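INFO  loader      accepted 1 record
INFO  loader      residues=59
INFO  predictor   begin
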Amino acid sequence: MSEKKAYPLRINADVLAAVQRWSDDELRSLNAQIEYVLRDALRKAGRLPKPQGDKEPSA
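INFO  predictor   done
INFO  writer      dumping tokens
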């Protein structure tokens, strides 16, 4: 697992409340939910690097 870095986040109160409700529904911490949403968006945009252990299958 990669190293975790702390980062202060300024966020709109309504957005924070919505993410908090979502994290409660998913039984995640607020921090874990924010990381989950960011990772999902990065993956969908093709911007999340693949883990080093994953190799492309050769054809």
